[in-house]
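Hi L., both proteins are below.
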Amino acid sequence: MTVFLLAPTAIATLITLGPSILDGTAGFRYPAAAAAEQNSPGFQTITSEQLNQMLPRKDFFFVNVHIPYEGQIEGTDAFIPYDEIDRNLDKLPADKNAKIVLYCRSGRMSKIAAEQLSKLGFLHVSHLSGGMIAWQASGHALTEH
């Protein structure tokens, strides 16, 4: 179902109700915001399906940034709290051209960490849209360390 809302300035906002394309869960999303997230300068947003295809030929450094720790996706290389990523650069690849994929429980913390790494000059940073919630909703399991 699509609903148009008019803001006080008479600008129409499109809201799509129903399953979210980004994380596969029921709810609503703002298409313009989703498109902007997909094209954020400095980092990319990946889906659970994209990550699932990337893991068998893993050529990236994989980081869980969620606090508190609530499990992880198989293949995780490091656990670094999202709000301490800039103080833990020694745990990341020294090469700022290295591919880095970040995730958390819902995608919020990993997006913040991805923005931070981007600002610090890392060139190939991605984060998992919907995080571990979307990963599990796609039928994939979490593990414990």
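That was the first. Here is the second:
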Amino acid sequence: MGPIPESSGPSTRSSARPAVPSALRAPLLTGAAVGTATLLLALRDPHVRGSYGFCPLLELTGLACPLCGGLRATHDLAHLDLAGAWSANALWTVTAPVVVVLWLAWLVSAARGRPVRGLSSTAGWVTLAVALAFFVARNLPGLQPYLTPWITPWITPWS
């Protein structure tokens, strides 16, 4: 065996970290942004009135929109308080885990280099219908104690 030849040109090894594949950038940036927002909500309690602003629809009409209570529900979910999250916004409490699973599917598809299929128009219409049904249901006096208890205190007939 002879001596190991030395390369006269630049080294083929790079000391720089490998770049994140472009397909992973969007899901990773989305995850980082949502994670940061969730951390902010976990640290600063939105249950304090006015801490994150107000809902114009609620202030003007007294009706809770489908998103009302979403920040409080996210805070409660971050603290693993499922009952508190449900009382703040039942729809978001059920939807948040679905959103996380969809994000994970997006991340895995991007990591494997597979094209990511968007949701169908049917999924959009179903989402709109569910949001509208929730909007109506949470503002019905008979369901308010269960779906929007923070608007009016629930008074039982026996109290």
